[in-house]
Prior knowledge:
The complex is a heterodimer.
Chain A: H1 9-23, H2 28-52, E1 59-62, E2 73-76, H3 78-104, H4 112-131, H5 135-153, H6 159-190, H7 195-201, H8 207-225, H9 234-237, H10 243-268, H11 275-294, H12 299-320, H13 323-354, H14 365-368, H15 370-384, H16 390-405, H17 408-437, H18 448-460, H19 473-491, H20 493-507, H21 510-518, H22 525-549
Antiparallel strand pairs in A: 1-2
Chain B: H1 5-22, H2 27-47, H3 70-100, H4 110-118, H5 140-182
Helix pairs in contact in B: 1-2, 2-3
Amino acid sequence: MNTVALAPLSIVVLFFAAAVTFVLSRREKAQRLIAFVAIVAVLAVEVTLLISSWNSGPQTVQLGGWQAPFGITMVVDQLSALMLVVSSTISLAVLVYATGQDIADDDHEVPISVFYPTYLLLLAGVSNAFLAGDLFNLYVGFEILLMASYVLITMNANAPRIRAGTTYVVVSVVSSLLFLTAIGFVYASTGTINMADLSMKLQTLPTGTQYQLHLMLLIAFGIKAAVFPLSLWLPDSYPTAPAPVTAVFAGLLTKVGVYAIIRTETLLFPSGGLSTLLSIVAVLTLFVGILGALAQTDIKRMLSFILISHIGYMIWGIALDSELGLTTVVFYLAHHIVIQTGLFLVVGLMERRGGSANTQRLGGLLKITPWLAVLYFIPAINLGGIPPFSGFLGKVGLLQGSVEVGTWQAYLMAGVGVLVSLLTLLALARVWNKAFWRPAKNAEKPTASLLRAEKDIEADGVLDEQDYKRISPTMVIPTVGLVAIGALLTVVAGPLFHFSDRASDNLRNPDLYIQAVFEDPSLTRQGYLDESLAQQNTELESQETKETSE
Amino acid sequence: MPIDLSLILVMGVMYGVGVYLILDRTMTRVLLGLMLLTNATNILIFHASGAAGLSPLYDKSIDPAAYSDPLPQALVLTSVVISFAVTALLLGIIYRSWLLSRGDAILDDYEDQQVAAKGAYDPEEDAVAEFDESEFDSNESTREREFAAFSQRRQQAEKKLEERKEKKAESTQDRQNQEGERA
C-alpha cells in the first residue's frame, strides 16, 4: 500500500478528536483520553510517513482525485515529514504536562472544556500547514492554527491576558491579510495557486512583479516567524499565557512561519534575489533579539526574546542559499522546537516551585530541588551551543556553510552568530546564577515560599513536598522526556544530518517537487521557461508579420 | 481586459480607511478597520478573476472563456467565513476587556467613555461583572489597588442606581398624582 495516502489522516483524526472532545466537554477524563489517543495515533501515522519519505523524493496525495493544479494537493517530503513528527512529539509532551498541571491544581488554571478541543485544532492547523501543496491551503492551515491560538492565548480572559491577546490577535490578523492579499496578486498574475505550478509560472513574470510578490509573501511569513522588524508582538504576548500554552506556541508557531519562508525561498523563488536582504534581516534578528533577552528579569520574557534571536539562525541558513546551509536549517528546526519547548516547560516547573518566574524573586533552587537544576541546565547549555549538544552541531553547520559560501554577508552572519551564541549563554547563565546558585535570601525580593523552603532544608536537609504547590510526576515526566530527546539529538545527529541532507537535496531541486505534484517526470522549471519564451517569440513574430503585411 | 473602475475605487477607499482605523488605539475602531481591510482584500481577489462573465454552471454549448472564473469566488467565500470567525472572536475580546478594565488606558475606548459619561445605570445592559481574581502572577499590591478601585466604582454605580430608582418612584408618583387630579 502507498503509505503517503495516510497523510490526510494526520489532519482528519485531529479534527475528529476535537469535535468529540468538544461534545464531551463535561467529561474531563474522556477528553484527556481522546486527546491523548488522537495525538498518539497521529504521531504513529507521521512516523510512518517519515520512514517512507526517508530516501525518496516528494510524494503527493491528490485529494478527491482531482488532478493538480485543479485539486487540492498535499505534499510529503523529508522537511514536512520531519516537521510533522517533531511537532506531534512536543505537542504530546505538552498535552501530558498540561493535564498534569490541571490535575495538580484544584483551581483549574486552564479551563478543561475549551482547552482540549482548541489544542487539537491548533495541531490540525499546524499539520495542514506542513502538508499544504498550494498557497491557499497553506493560508487555511495558518488560519486554523491562528484561530485556535487566539482562544488559547486569551484563555481565562483576565486583564493581562486580554491585553496581550489583543496585540497578538490584531497583529496576526494583519499578517494573514497581507498573506491573503499576496495570494490575490499571485493569482491575478499567474492564474494558479498550486505551489508546483507557481514554481514554473512565477519565473516567467517580469522581474519587478516577481520581487513584489516575493516581498509580500516574505513579509507575511516574517510576521509569523517573528523576524526582527516584525517581531515586536511576540515577547509582549507569549509570556502571559499559561506555561504549557506558551511552550507549544514558542516551539511550533514561529517555526510554521520559518517553514513557509523555506518553501518560498526554495520552491516559489529558487533563483533568490533577496538573499542579501535576508542576511541583513538574519543579523538584525539575531542581535536585537539577544539584546532584548539580556535586558529582561522575567525568565519567560527572556526566553521569548531568545526565541526571536534564534529564529535569526534559521534565517541565516536560508539566506546562505547553499546545500549545507539548508541542511543545517532543517536540523536546527528540529533541535530548536524540542529545546525551546522543553525550556519553557522547565520554567513552568520553576515558577510552580519558586512562586515566580522573575529572576529578582528566585534563588536557592539548586538546593531546594536539585533535579530541577539538572533539568534546566541541560537544555540551557544546549541552546547556548556548548559541545557536544545539538545546538553546537547546528551552529557548526551554519559556520561551515558560511565559510563555504564565502561572501561578506556570510562572514557577517557568522561573526554575529558566534557573538549571539555567547550572549545567549550569558543570558541563560545569569538565570542559572540567580535562580539556582545564590541562596534565596540574597535575592532582591525573594518569594515567601522559597525562603520557607530554604529554612526547611537547612533545618533537616529534606523538603517536605506536601507543604508546597504540587509538582506532579505527570508534569515532570514529559519535561524530562523533552530534555532527554534534546540531549539525544546529539546521539542521532549522524542519521539526522544525513536525513536533513536528503531534505535539502530535494528542496534545492524544485523540479522533483513539480514532477511529483503533476505526476509527470518530463516537467522542469527550465523547460517551462524555454517553452514560454519560445511561445512569446512566435507571438511577437506573428505580430510583426501582421504589422509588415499591413 | 475591461475592469470595473468603481470597484477598484471602492477597494482603494476601503484599504485607506481600514489602515487609518487599525492605527487607532480603540479596539472597536481596530475591529472596524480589520473588517474593511478584509473586505477590500476580498474585492482584490475578486478582481483577479478578470471581467465578470456567465455564472460558472457547466453547459456544453457555452464557450469556456465566457464563464466567470469560479476559483476566486471560492477563495473569497473561504476568507469571508474566516473573517466572520475572527470578527466574532474580537467582539468577544472587546466585550471582555470592557468588563475587566473600564478605566484602562490602553483599552480606552471612545464608545466606552461615552457610556461611562452618561452615568445612567441600566442594570441589564451595564451590570458590573464580578471582579476577576483568577490572575495568579500579578503582584498582591496592584491587585488590591485594582480591587479597591473596582469596589469604589461599583459602590458609585449602586448609589446611582438607588438615586435613579428613587427618582423613578418620585416621577411615577407625580404622574399618578397628576392623573388623580385630572380624574
